[in-house]
Design a protein that fits this description.
Helix content: over 70%
Number of strands: 0
Oligomer: single chain
Length: 122
């Protein structure tokens, strides 16, 4: 019976996480060496939208975890709860790491763009 509960709970948890779609990173970061100001502004907007989507995703998976733990109630073993928390933390951290990588790539291109603009002035 315990195995059946754990299996059913794991299936329900996996289904719940499916309700938190993983955001798609911007498909194109402008090349600062060739980009126009408009390209850079559009890139900044895309990165900002992606940041919001990642924040929404992490909020969603945090809530899903809390709901799953509450639903498990007293039947949920501490080890099962810990494992669920570890999986959620890995998903959360991976999303934040990917966001940071996108932001870093964009910021590098901003530096290239600014250097190009400074060269044109000087």
């Amino acid at each position: 019976m315990k195995a059946l509960f754990v299996m059913a709970f794991a299936t329900a948890t996996a289904a719940a996480y499916a309700e938190c779609p993983y955001p798609q990173a911007p498909t194109k970061i402008p090349d600062g060496a060739t980009a126009t100001l408009e390209d850079m502004v559009a890139g900044q907007k895309a990165v900002g939208e992606y940041q919001k989507a990642i924040n929404d995703y992490t909020t969603c998976i945090d809530k899903e975890l809390d709901d799953a733990i509450a639903k498990g109630g007293d039947k949920l073993k501490p080890d099962d709860k810990r494992k669920m928390q570890q999986v959620e933390a890995q998903k959360h951290n991976a999303a934040v790491d990917q966001l940071q990588a996108v932001a870093d790539r964009f910021n590098e291109q901003v530096k290239v763009y600014k250097a190009k603009a400074a060269d044109k002035k000087g």
